[in-house]
Amino acid sequence: MLSFAEEIYLLALDDITGKIIISSKDVVFDAVMVGAILSELSFNNRIDTDQEELYILNTEYTGYPVLDSVINLFRETDKKETRIKHCLQVLMPHARELEKMTLEQLVKKGILKKVEEKVLWFFPSRRYPIINDTEIVDVETRLRALVMSSEIPAPRDAVLVSLVDASGLFHEILSPREYRRCKERIEQLAKLDNVGRKVHEMIKQIRDYANMPPYV
To answer: What's the whole-model pTM score?
Structure first.
């Protein structure tokens, strides 16, 4: 099973170029990936959340490098609880390293491969084509079926909907007509996850501050 961060990374990766397709990657993708990692820690019983607060329950390592790097940060503080929003802000400066570790795991699992290229003959470029698309097809199929139905989502799927919605990636998964039809359903499911809601709020504030247009 893929982690939330791995699923988000694959959904955000362009199959042709091997580049992240989320607009404003620097701010949006970073926030969503941090949220995905916190969500995974929750499912691993390392943290818990309510509407506003995040509680550190256990700082034992999980064996997953990405999660354990965040646990290391938790170990450096004596706090056992903090605001979810504050935790997201603290982790944002570490987002690039967390994304790099997530990418390394996907390469290690044989889902992505690293390709060195030359752009304009002398500028090195690196891309990561998908070599095993079973996982990404399964994620997209699962999300599409969920948001286009009235079924009650599994807890992990509710979290994933929230993260994907925050990233704007439903515009890649669904056609414009499908998205308009499912928009209310997606918003309802996204509200079920506390971390996802705070990621939404953070991204909205970032977009407002930078005068970036909202998602259509």
So the answer is: 0.85
